[in-house]
Every structure is written in structure tokens, then in C-alpha cells.
Amino acid sequence: MRFQGKILNWNDDKGFGFVEPSGGGERAFVHIKAFKTRSRRPVNGEVIVYELVRENNNRFKAINIKFARDGKVSKNRSKAKSSNSFGVSFILLFCIGLSVSTFILGMPVIVAGLYVVMSFIAYVAYAIDKSAAKSGRWRTKESTLHLLSIIGGWPGAYLAQNKLRHKSSKSEFKSIYWVTVFINLGGLFWLHTEKGANFLNQAVVPLLNG
Hints:
The chain is of the alpha+beta class. The chain has helices at 68-103, 109-135, 142-163, 171-191, 194-208; strands at 2-11, 16-21, 28-31, 47-54, 60-67. A hairpin with a 4-residue loop joins strand 1 (2-11) and strand 2 (16-21).
């Protein structure tokens, strides 16, 4: 059974102290060698997770100790990695679908080209905004970044968020970003309908071709 508690009376020179369980219970002896990962030294008040054993002198000792915050960091990294894997897989499936639409269903190649161009522009916009954030220069509006996603730059925007570590931790921004993705995909789906195809071939393609 694992417990959680705070370190008390820590003597860093001797490498030992005590732990007081968070929910009350037996105070236990803590030794530096009982930590599974000794990447840093414990300090008074730090929360740890541990197992409890009773020694021959009838006193309790903490073993298999971990820092509680290390567990939270590990979980957050795992969630981020899982989210990143989903996003990359989503983009790959989209690219496959777009290729099928272009080379088999007859979608004009210019549409795929638009995604490539807009993704490049979106990636550059994110890079410029991150540089501006570091140097204190004028920032790019979030609405502008979302607009780039809506008009086809969302794959590049996603890669920028994760590669450049920009806007990737803002939950509100990410939520709106995914809304722009599905708005764009909805528009792409509409282009496969009779009305959408007519609009594309009669208005968009001639305009893009100049």
C-alpha cells in the first residue's frame, strides 16, 4: 500500500528525516537511499509517495519513495505525447484522404496545393509570433492564426504548435483551433457535393488560375 505525506526534520548532511502522512497515521523514518530516483535532494515540506514497513525496533520506515510532483510531470508528459500522436495520425489520415480525393475522385489539384501553401504560411506565422513573444515585439492576433487554420493552414498550424512549443499549452486556444479544423473539413466535404463542385470549378479555380 502506498502513502503520501510531507517530509519533516530533514537533515541533508546526514541524508535522513521523517515523513508525516497526509491523512494522519504513523510517522516514518526517511533515508536518502530509499528514493527510487535521486535526481535531486529532498527538502522539508516536500510531498512524497512511499510504501511503509515496520522495522525490528517496531518503528516505521518509508521505502520505494518518489517525489509526488515527479508523478504529475510524468502523467502530463504522457498526456502530451498521446495527444501529439493523435494529432499526427489525424494529419496523416487527412493527407491520405486528400490524395484519394485529388487523384481518384477528381478534386482539382489546386485545392491540395492550397493546403500546402496555407500550412507553410501558418507555420511561419506561428514562428514569427513566438519570436515576437520572446523579444517583446508586436504579437500576431490569435484570431489571425485561427483564420489561417480555417482557410487550410491547420495542418501546418498543428505542426508549429508542437514543433515550436507555441500555443500548445493554452487549452482555450487549442479548443478554438480544433473548431477551426472541423469548420475547414466541413467546407472541404461541401466541395465534394454537386453545389460545392460547381462553386469550385466555376468560381474558385478560375480565380486562383488568374
